[in-house]
Amino acid sequence: MALEKLARVDQRQSPTVVEIAKRAGCSIATVSRVLNRPETVAIDLRERILRIVDELGYVPNGSARALRSSRSRLIGLIVPTLDSAIFTRMLEGLESRLAPAGASLVYSATGYDLDREIRVVRNLIEKGVDGIVLVGSCHRKETLKLLREHRVRFAVTYALSEDVSIPSMGFDNRSGGALAASYLADLGHKNLAVIAGVTRENDRASGRLEGFLAMAERRGIDRSSIVVVESPYEFSRGRAAAKIILNQNRNVTAIFCGSDVLAVGALRACKDAGLSVPQDISMIGFDNLDIAEYLTPGLTTVDVPARLMGEQAANYFLADQNSLDIHSRVELETRLIVRQSTAPARDRQ
Amino acid sequence: MALEKLARVDQRQSPTVVEIAKRAGCSIATVSRVLNRPETVAIDLRERILRIVDELGYVPNGSARALRSSRSRLIGLIVPTLDSAIFTRMLEGLESRLAPAGASLVYSATGYDLDREIRVVRNLIEKGVDGIVLVGSCHRKETLKLLREHRVRFAVTYALSEDVSIPSMGFDNRSGGALAASYLADLGHKNLAVIAGVTRENDRASGRLEGFLAMAERRGIDRSSIVVVESPYEFSRGRAAAKIILNQNRNVTAIFCGSDVLAVGALRACKDAGLSVPQDISMIGFDNLDIAEYLTPGLTTVDVPARLMGEQAANYFLADQNSLDIHSRVELETRLIVRQSTAPARDRQ
DNA sequence: GGAAACTATGAAAAGGTTTACATAGCCCTG
DNA sequence: CAGGGCTATGTAAACCTTTTCATAGTTTCC
């Protein structure tokens, strides 16, 4: 006699829907229904099943669920890096919305390398994510091809894609840069410098720079007179870049930095050089990191709706794909936060 | 005649292992083998299959793979929050190791709420993660029960669990606190204050505080003379806490903060109060965030091997479970980074 | 009172892999 | 040259759900 057939289901094995059904005296289909659309099951049976689910500590198998329904409740996030804290707020916003809906966030970094982004995307597709949040609208053809061929929804953040068919929750980096230029012009600054992020294959960095230059020009400042340096987003790099600018261009009275991280470094360089901010040099950052308010002097900066972008992206992916009010293009605003690092122009020396 | 049977496989559908096998004229088992243990397949067949895989842009279905093999290549990370940048470095370290191995990181936040942690853990188990990285060794019974019952490997970071059967990659928060106390004693400070994190259900915050107090006592400073305030890890809260301390205890000459975030706020409070650091007040932080070096004055702080913990945790989960050299307890060191925010004691006023 | 329309449930297939087991061909060895 | 041990491949089951379709029972309506 096949004794093993009679052996009780191994207690130590995680229970499945079969075990639940057996105990509730119903079919697995009904158990599944209770778990997914409870209202379709008679109340007493439903409650009996739920009780058993609870008793056994049953947790559905996400892989099986995903395989069958082709929905994993996983959303991928691909950012260049979290090292410089710029994208952390978006990540938090995204997760804060996903979690209550039972969805999870899969995080990946590219290190600002678009080729690595291709591999990252492939990896996320393999994991079966329901959607991918990208930063910026500059990507390899291959990246987009992968996304299209595998029918993975995606959205762009931190920028607004020119192609309106691509969902984006972002802001116009150019206007952000323009905000800074405009304010410096208002203050009477004529000798400007920019420490931009690395603009190559980075539409955010180049947009901010372009917007700044264009507005400066409109305000009567000769574009070619503006000193521009590019620098990776690191404190030390901002410091080094500012040092060069201050040494080589003794008449510069204001510096616009493509990110607050660069600005922190640049502020330090001013101090190193014995220049005071804002008396000698005005400084404007970009991002409005939490720390900006706590620097000395408080950093004037362009606020980026980072958390909001994350939340909006989450909304987009959580919304029923056929829903009527699905916002696939959310245009958010930047605004200038004036603190103590900017003042009216005064000649240096 | 059933024409649809003859219809070519829908090009627009992602190809599966069946399609590959068909084109290569072999069985799906062989395709699977090529993908997982290539060395077991004859070289010419293997290469033919790989070529087809490439041509078709085949991407394996992770859900099916996970379902069958019960390995998802997903590692969960549960931290209180990323808002204060404390845990970001660990996250980056973890991801940087997981990605090359084809594994991905699923991020979740608890907001310092241990009950929410239970739900988060359940959710991650449902997603089928192969392992979970936790922060600290203080958790609800139910959390641990879930992990055990579902046989999910997990590890503790940012602390060393007392229970040696629980893998941990962390450091001793008490020694970290002791480092700070010891250094302040060396400098001759006798009137100390601590702005600790919220110690309730937080072994890291309480460990740091305890270690500080114990060492201070050992160095002849009466424990009861030390002013202790607890505060959530936010710039503004650190500022508020320091303000109270400075107002109510005019003789305090040194403040130890349970995190750099608190220290940034506290530095600001000193400035608000017209006190200079380090001449009037010495300040020590904890974490050694990147920003610490760029504050004015540069912040003396206890360095935490955050990135390393992430990397070590990744190593642990990536290692073959039966491997001999699997390090399930990695004890890392904190060290004091002396900058400009600390100086020998001088009476205030 | 009987057809029509619902409602609650069950049976069974499907989703794409991995893997235990079987097999066929080959090379050795005695 | 029989038989044993390899190696490379194939067959088919299993992983755990969701979902389509069928069915039995109940209500509704003329």
Description:
The structure is a homodimer of 349-residue chains. Chain A has 349 residues and is α/β, with parallel strands linked by helices. Chain A has 13 helices and twelve strands. In chain A, helix 2 packs across helix 4. Chain A is elongated. The first copy, chain A, starts with a helix and ends in a 12-residue tail after the last strand. The model of chain A is unreliable at 1-10 (pLDDT under 50). Strand 2 of chain A pairs antiparallel with strand 2 (104-109) of chain B, so a sheet runs across the interface. The structure holds a DNA duplex (30 and 30 nucleotides).
Give the secondary structure arrangement, pairings included.
2 copies of one chain form a homodimer.
Chain A: H1 3-6, H2 17-24, H3 28-36, H4 43-56, H5 62-69, E1 74-79, H6 88-98, E2 104-109, H7 114-127, E3 131-135, H8 141-149, E4 153-157, E5 168-171, H9 173-186, E6 192-196, H10 203-218, E7 227-230, H11 235-248, E8 254-257, H12 260-272, E9 282-287, E10 300-303, H13 306-318, E11 329-332, E12 335-337
Parallel strand pairs in A: 1-2, 1-3, 3-4, 4-5, 5-11, 6-7, 6-8, 8-9, 9-10
Antiparallel strand pairs in A: 10-12
Helix pairs in contact in A: 2-3, 2-4, 6-13, 7-8, 9-10, 11-12
Chain A binds a DNA duplex (30 and 30 nucleotides) through residues 16-18, 26-30, 32-33, 35-36, 40-42, 45, 60-70.
